[in-house]
Predict the structure.
Amino acid sequence: FAGDIDVNQGALVLESNTSGAQPLGNANTQINIINATTTPTVSLRADVATTFDNFNINAGNNNFNLDVRNLTSTTNGFTMTGGTVNIGNATMSVTGDRANARLAALNVAPGSTLTTININGNSNTAQNLRIDTLTADANATVRKNGGQTLTIGPSNATMIGRLELNGGTTVVEGNAAASLNPLGNVNAPITFLSGSTLSLRAEDNFTF
């Protein structure tokens, strides 16, 4: 499939088999969440850890679920990896069964004031989320909800907004060798809204 997909309600399910067959064949394909009153679901499903090529979501100010799960396997902990999510004043909820989610990037739209990442799953373990690169401007607040783990990968100071922690664990990674720190604004506080864990991780001595 090489076009764009508009998701209005219900669920869009993308499957990959053990041979790595992929449904999306165009790097420019966009999955657009277009309904502000329902909460559509985009689901990634496979029976092995899988990178779903050409997977990019434009949510705008519309809530949606990012669902990750196996097809039939009962093995816990496979990671379903997607590309980029662009989102504004909206909530992305990570849901599913057994699997974890990973995104190459999550970009908060400039001028957005509250973007919520809800990681409140834990069906047969997992449903944690890793974002390799989180980008948000100084006006943004990124709020992490839920009891599962959000990991923010090392980047060149791309997260300059505020980070709010509202449950579970948030891991912030630095890369000492490349001097990569995702938190780029010394005036942007990390605020604890409820009992939460903040974990700072690097492979060597590092100043966040």
Observations:
- The chain is about 0% helix and 50% strand.
